[in-house]
Amino acid sequence: MIIFLTGGNGFIGKKFIKEALSSGHQIYAVSRKKMQNKKNLTWLKGNLDNDWTTYLKRSHVLIHMAAVGVNKDITLEEAITANVIKPYKLLINAINSDCADWLIIGSASEYGKQAAKKKPLGIKTKELPETNYEKSKYLFTKLSTSLSVKFKTRCRVMRLFNVYGEGENKKRLWPSLVRANKFKKNLHMTDGKQIRDFISVDVVVKILLKAAKFETKRKKFPQIWHVASGKPTSVKLFALKNWKKLGAKKKILFNKIKSPLSRNYISEKRSIWSIK
Question: pTM of the prediction?
Answer without folding.
Answer: 0.95
